[in-house]
Amino acid sequence: MPFLRLHPEVINRKERVRDREIDTIIGKNKRDAIVTICERKTKMAIIHKLDEGRKAEALPQTVFLSLLAYKDKVHSITSDNGDELLHTKKLRKA
């Protein structure tokens, strides 16, 4: 996973609160999906069902709304290279 190697070592060590990791879990039928947003140090997780399943276009808004209450508690968000996470670049602007 080359993308994960690009972020700073402080994130890799999982010693700093407010660093988040995002991932999707695809259902057995390949249509349903959930997004998980985990705080890397404390392991606190936010989990939401994606209304449009695996469609990547719906992911940024779901993540944005999920983190809105925590906006002052997010330092970084990392993800893997999954196709459904390609649209998360839109979150950088939020």
Structural summary, described in words:
The protein is α+β, with helices and mostly antiparallel strands and 94 residues long. Helix content is 18%, strand content 26%. It has helices at residues 2-5, 9-12, 59-67; strands spanning 19-26, 33-39, 45-49, 76-79. It has a 4-stranded mixed beta sheet with strand order 3-2-1-4, with helices on one face. The radius of gyration is 13 Å and the shape is globular. The chain starts with a helix and ends in a 15-residue tail after the last strand.
Describe the structure in brief.
The protein has helices at residues 2-5, 9-12, 59-67; strands at residues 19-26, 33-39, 45-49, 76-79.
Strand content: 25-35%
Radius of gyration: 13 Å
Distance between the termini: 26 Å
The SS-based structural class is alpha+beta
The helicity comes to 10-25%
Number of strands: 4
- General shape: globular
- Write the element-wise H/E pattern from the N-terminal end onward: HHEEEHE
Could you tell me the mean pLDDT?
A: 80
Distinctive features:
alpha+beta; four-stranded mixed sheet; globular
Which secondary structure elements does this structure contain, and how are they paired or packed?
Blueprint: H1 2-5, H2 9-12, E1 19-26, E2 33-39, E3 45-49, H3 59-67, E4 76-79
Parallel strand pairs: 1-4
Antiparallel strand pairs: 1-2, 2-3
